[in-house]
Design a protein that fits this description.
298 residues, alpha+beta, two-stranded antiparallel sheet
Length: 298
Amino acid sequence: MNIFTLRTVMDDLMHRYTTRVPDVKKVTAAMVENELISSSRDIENDHIAFRTLGIPNLGIASFEKIFMACGYQKKDYFYFEGKKIDAYWYAPPAPNFPRIFLSELRVSDLSEESQQIIKKYTETIQQDPVDSLDLTDGTAISAFLHSPLWEIPTLEDYETLQKESEYAAWVIYNRYYLNHYTISVHNLLNGYDDIYKYVEFLESIGVKLNDSGGKVKVSPDGGLLQTSTVAQLIEAEFANEKKHIIAGSYVEFAERKVLPEFKHLPKEEITREHRRDGFETANADKIFESTFSSQTKK
């Protein structure tokens, strides 16, 4: 386990993500102003998420090597039938690091037309690019995560993919950009540790929320409650200098309830291990839609 490497990667990911997603600074500033937190250092990052393509030399099998080398442990598998997506989550080596949710598109389940478009951009990748990375070098890993693995797509190819899979279109343009990070609502002050009250706060400062499946997505056991912003729209430059407004990244918020066997503990003694862990398929299925046009065009 190399904590220094992991800290370098996380710091760089969050710096670039914060620059690209204005809602991060907007929400953080409002939380400080309204005394939900004392400073940004009080925010616990529940998890971060990445999207990938399930093809040889890429996908989960490739990407997970980066974080497993830093001590992350692979946990539960998830399948999203309608969206043609597989996913796993990964537990961090220490509680001050976020969980990771890593998903991949089942490319072979797409139409022949979409498969050929994806192949056109990725067929030059003849070996796993992570295998040539020094996984003890945080700076090298950060550079890799923000470097193109294939050519910028044409707008026509992007739009063709989007008609069948908005996830595919997102990845073909955004590649390994951090899809979202997640604020742990249960650690906030002044009663805002309740996600329903926190949603009222978000809407009071003009934050647009993903309402697919309801603004708050609740696991069947009631232990995991999640909401998210609608993805920031960015001006993307495609091949041949064509420009188009597309979905970028977004911010998620999660409340993890204390497990029944620890309900007797005073709040100041409750740590991450006392709360509901893991993820929920139905919740995540709707959170994915934060980048979909059904949300961004409302």
